Amino acid sequence: MRCAILTLFPEAIRPYLDESILGIAQAQGNLRVDLVDFRNYAYDPHRTVDDRPFGGGPGMVLKPEPIFDAVFDVERAHGPHHRILLCPRGRSFHQRRARELSRMERLLFVCGRYEGYDERIRELAFEEISLGDFVLAGGELAALAVLEATVRLIPGVLGCADSAVLESFEGEWLDYPQYTRPRDFRGLKVPDVLLSGDHEAVARWRHEQARLLTARKQRPDPFPSTPANGPPNHQG
C-alpha cells in the first residue's frame, strides 16, 4: 500500500510512523508513506494556507488552493488514490471499513486544522471519516488511527495471521479476557481453566466470556438532536 498524508505538521507524524506496526510494515515493504506539507503549495510570500471565514465568525478556515494543488501533485506522481477527509461530518470508522481499506493500493488522507476546510475542497470527492463525536486540534491523530487499523490487516504485516482475526470487532463479539505470567499477581489469580490443559474447556470458557463481555458492553449515549449551545461552530 502507498499512502499520502497531507498535513501542516509532518514532523509530528513521522516518529509514530517509524515505530511498531507501521514501522514494521514499511520495513517489510508492505507500506510506503509520503508525508506532504501542503503549506508548500501556498505560493504567496508568507505561504498562507488559511484565511478569515466569509460571513464572519471566529478562527481561520483552510483555503482550497493548497489542498487542491497538493492532491493533484501527489496523484500526478503516483496515480489515483482513494481520498479520505478526516472531519466531524464523516461516517464513524469501524473494523469492517478498515478491512475494506486494507485491500486498496493507494490511500490519501487530508488532515485539517483551525476552524475547518473551505467547503469547495469537497469537490475532490473524498470519503469522509470521523473517529467519533469529539473535537481534535487537527486530523493527524485520526489519520494515524485509521492508517494503523488498516495496515495491520494487510497480509504479512502481523507476525501471526490469526492476530488480525481472533480479536474484538472481527465478529459479532468482543475478544475474551487474556492472561499471562505470573499465575498469581498480588492475590489476583489466573482462572484455573486456563491452566488445565483441557483445550475444549478453554474454548468453552473463552466463548462464554466473550459472550458476557459483549452483553455488558456499554454503548455510547445517542448524539443529542439539539446541542445545548446551538449548532457547532467549527470542524473538529
Task: Describe the protein in words.
The protein has 236 residues and is α/β, with parallel strands linked by helices. It has two domains: 2-151, 3-Layer(aba) Sandwich (Alpha/beta knot); 172-216, Trp Operon Repressor, Chain A (Orthogonal Bundle). Helix content is 29%, strand content 17%. The protein contains six helices and nine strands; from the N terminus they run E-H-H-E-E-E-H-E-H-E-E-H-E-E-H. Strands 2-1-6-5-7 form a five-stranded parallel beta sheet, with helices on both faces. The protein has a two-stranded antiparallel ribbon with strand order 3-4. Helix 4 (95-101) packs across helix 5. It is elongated, with a radius of gyration of 22 Å. It starts with a strand and ends in a 20-residue tail after the last helix.
Offer a concise description of the structure.
With 236 residues, the chain is of the alpha/beta class. The chain has helices at 10-17, 20-28, 64-78, 95-101, 140-151, 199-216; strands at residues 2-7, 32-37, 50-51, 61-62, 82-92, 106-110, 127-130, 184-185, 188-189.
Q: Globular, elongated, flat, extended or rod-shaped: what is the shape?
A: elongated
In DSSP terms (H or I, runs of 4 or more residues), the helix count works out at 6
CATH fold-level name of the largest domain = Alpha/beta knot
Low-pLDDT windows of residues: 219-236
Rg (CA only): 22 Å
The CATH architecture of the largest domain can be given as: 3-Layer(aba) Sandwich
CATH superfamily of the largest domain: SPOUT methyltransferase, trefoil knot domain
The structure class reads: alpha/beta
Calculate the mean pLDDT score and round it. 89
**Beta-strand residue fraction:** 15-25%
Give the strand tally. 9
Count of spatially separate domains: 2
| Percentage of residues assigned to helices | 25-40%
The ordered string of helix (H) and strand (E) elements is EHHEEEHEHEEHEEH
The separation of the N and C termini measures 27 Å
Can you tell me the CATH class of the largest domain?
A: Alpha Beta
